[in-house]
Amino acid sequence: MKEEWMEKKDSFEVIDVRKLTSNFLPMILMKAKRKNVGEGLCVVQTFEPKPLYSALEDLGYEYSTEKISEREYRAYFYRVKQKDITYESGADMPFKPTAILNYKKVDDVLAENVVNFWELVWEKKDAAIDQKTKLLLSMANAVGASRFRQATRELIKAYSLGVTIAELDEIFTLFAWNQGIGHFSSEIGPSVLFGVYRHIKNREKVGTDKKTIIDEVMEMFGDRNPEVSVQFSYRKGKPCPKYP
Asked: What residues make up the domain containing 197?
């Protein structure tokens, strides 16, 4: 019962992210994974941290949020069971919604509005369209608008949820049909999106397991790749990895 564990909230580790502008989600998730059943976390944010709810629920946490002031929310997470998460369950799906942090840099109220809209689109409890289909639709829309950064992220998330190469083959055929051969040749073919698709297809052909492929894709095309990341950073040192 939440009422029982909320009595322990003062003993929870406190993570205050109000002044953080970098991607702090991996840090929170790592701390959450290390907690034992019966332990908790308190995340302090300037808006209600809704993207954390489902992520930590999938790790076996219950949560309760208190609004302290207009610009201070305290979300308490208490681990009630030890749960393993997988890509297929959606719990460990690549690319958390870190773009929300960009809105926080502009205005806290704007960030809160974006979080609420994100929840309506991606966390709707009684959604009529399943998550995998939503991601494919979002990817197709992004390609139509030449937003290859977004399209790449959606493709990787959809693949982690079970989209097959056969489905991707048909979708890329539709891109050639709808966008035109010239656009496909000059824009889609050389894009990071096509690089991810090609890598997945080549690795599946030689029998590489899906978990390994996803790990490889995230190493090559994850947030450290400036063509895919939604966070601004100055490139230092190593160049982007080449597509296979």
From this structure: 129-244
User: CB-based burial of residue 230 (10 Å sphere; 0-12 exposed, 13-18 middle, 19+ buried)?
Assistant: middle
Q: Which two tokens stand for residue 128?
A: 């009529």
The CA distance from 136 to 167, in Å, is 10
What predicted TM-score, i.e. pTM, was given to this entire model? 0.76
- Which residues does 215 contact at the CB level (< 8 Å), separation at least 6? none
Same structural domain, 82 and 170: no
pLDDT at position 89, please? 47
List of the chain residues with pLDDT < 70: 1, 21, 84-93, 233-244
Pairing state of beta strands 40-45 and 72-79?
Answer: antiparallel
Residues 6+ away with beta carbon under 8 Å from 241: 219, 220, 225
**Distance between CA 87 and CA 167 in Å, rounded?**
18
The pLDDT value recorded for residue 235 is 55
